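Journal club side-thread
Mid-discussion, someone asked how the predicted structure for our own chain would compare to the paper's figures. Pasting it here so we can look after the session.
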Amino acid sequence: MSTSDPFAQDGPHGRHAEIDAAARTIAFSFGLSGITLRRLASTAGLSPGDIAAHEPSMTALVARTFEELAEIELNEARRDIAGSDSALGALRLLVGSLLEDTHGNFNSVWADAWSMGRHNVALARAARDNMTAWHELICSVVRRGMDGREFEGSDSDLVALQFLALIDSITAYSLVDYRTPAERSHLMRRTLEVSLGLAAGSL
């Protein structure tokens, strides 16, 4: 192998890393459905044959790419709220970050996961697992607020499920420009405020 080859020192593991990185880039630009052999080859700078030799299953690659991006998203959320001195502050940060325009790439990836997961068992499992992880994070914030009398109510599990249902619906709405961003934001924030006994504008 020529020493000018960018993968000369990394070997096959380096190629896998390049393919994974290319898949993540494509997912953000074109969605999970955009991860094709031809586009991977173009993005990674490899031949289609090289891609196929190192990653023979596009189905598995799509599922793995989603898992990697979903983990990045969840870890960012955990870091965002780690220093919050109140449950309300943490919830406000979660809502705000998920509704930001810059979060649109993750929204598109999630929308593809729900749709493509109907025919991709590994992707469906990854979507369920990550939904469960998000539910646990949100539930912990809500439970903290209820225990500390910041929030009314006692069913943190239900509120966390409601949170996820709201953000998922708003994600779908945003992809087809249904209602304005302000209206979608109001739906999310005000519904949670009512569920938690918070005054309007708290979130």
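Post-session note: The first helix runs from residue 11 to 30.
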